[in-house]
Amino acid sequence: MIDVRVPDEQEGTKAIVRAWLKQIGDAVAENDPLVEIETDKVTQEVSAPAAGVLSEIVLDTDAEAVPGALLGRISTDDVAATEVAPKAEAAPSVAERAVARPAPLSGDQETRLSPSVRRACLQHGIDPSRIAGTGRNGRITREDVDRLVASATVVSVGEPATAQPRQFSAQDIPHDRMRTTIAENMVRAVSEAPHVTAVFEADFSAIAAHKAALAAKGKKLSYTAYIVKAVGEAMAVAPAINGRWEKDRIAISPTIDVGVATALGEKGLVVPVVKDVASLSLEQVGAKLEDLTRRARDGKLERTDVSGGSFTISNHGVSGSLLAAPIILHQGQAAILGVGKLEKRVIVREVDGQDAILIRPMAYVTLTIDHRVVDGHQTNAWLTRFVEIIETWPSA
């Protein structure tokens, strides 16, 4: 027997078994996708560690998957692989009672459905033609399938209907697993860490000029790339901002690993991490950000892409927000930077010894800290240095 276990690296996020891709008695080849594990950030396939027959499922769908926990077992005995007893007829699932089992998917349907959606439809006996897709161009998403399964009515033939169907209005949005996990993390974060937020504002004129000069040379960078780089430089004045609370000490991260919150529309958000920012040039930061953002929106991030962050940026201004105080979600971090909408505002500055009224591209920046780790003077020192870097960015 070969054990199939949950991967060890979970980075403190709760994981659950989303779906088994094989059933007891199914033959599997080495490295065949065997089971899907889902956290609040990514869905990961666990592959078969050896060829054989899936002989036991220990953690079934929706069970919590603790790192290292036993998921199931594979029999590698040649005799067992060819003489597995027929499986007992399983009781109909929720979706099977609500929706008739379809014929095999046609070739056209196969090409339109993602592998995850196709497996879910086959597993639950759902005809995809009955699902109204909410993805791009009406494409069926995994959340569409999960929503149908969750709202199905449990009524067995010959049994009284003891439970009424769950009623939804056209405006209701049933919880998916990502939304539920995000909610749990939010509650945990504010109950464990005392949050305090400081607000500064920054003049982005110097960065706008530098960005325009690079664009004229054919090099395009986002404002976020400058913000990430400035974060790396500002850490020198208050290293504890790049630390975390431990029972016996404040642990300072040896590298500055910056997570950048990336919205996924109605699906919530993920936080891919730019590792060791201090060792990267501005252009390298920009390239890594572009790659991570593209793969996040395509659902192709790896576990290592979203783990190990020591600090987080929420650039909420891209969606129009002027001011916000983001929550520190990651237990291994002490602070999160919020950057509001960049807009032209009238400000007063001293020019040649005289007060002058100027129009400048301004943004509010906030630093929310875990008050167990740092105090107000460190928070303000960090923000002062961060704003100074933004406002004195050298010419291109």
TrEMBL record:
Residues 1-75 form the Lipoyl-binding domain. SUPFAM superfamilies: CoA-dependent acyltransferases, Peripheral subunit-binding domain of 2-oxo acid dehydrogenase complex, Single hybrid motif. Keywords: Acyltransferase, Lipoyl, Transferase. CDD domains: lipoyl_domain. The keyword 4Fe-4S does not apply. Residues 112-149 form the Peripheral subunit-binding (PSBD) domain. Its cofactor is (R)-lipoate. Pfam families: 2-oxoacid_dh, Biotin_lipoyl, E3_binding. It is an enzyme of class 2 (transferase). Belongs to the 2-oxoacid dehydrogenase family. Forms a 24-polypeptide structural core with octahedral symmetry. This is Dihydrolipoamide acetyltransferase component of pyruvate dehydrogenase complex. It comes from Sphingomonas telluris.
